[in-house]
């Protein structure tokens, strides 16, 4: 019994990374481990497995992102709609608030002219931004 324990506790000098089903060839007593061809085949199989796992991961990640983007677009459109309605309510409120002071027609004209002026301001800012982009991509940059 004592001899069995000593044998079980003896240090193991062989390779520890061999597959469980590996049996060395009996023809070559010199061969200690798998051949180079076996290692290359195992490496290619591992690479293929890794590539398949990475592809599946990226597909699931893209699906998740697409799903979240759809929700973000829906919430963005909802916010835009509500803000648009709020601006309409503000415009109507301004006309109603100015009507007792200057009359309904003049109040409508004041609010309309103010909105057109703000629209023209935004259009001029838009044109400036578009011109900057156009200048950045023009072939003859004048510095």
From TrEMBL:
This is Phage holin family protein. It comes from Qipengyuania aquimaris. The chain crosses the membrane at residues 71-99, 105-126. The keyword Acetylation does not apply. Residues 18-29 have a biased composition (Acidic residues). The keyword Signal does not apply. Residues 1-34 are annotated as: Disordered. It holds the Pfam family Phage_holin_3_6. Keywords: Membrane, Transmembrane, Transmembrane helix. InterPro entries: Phage_holin_3_6.
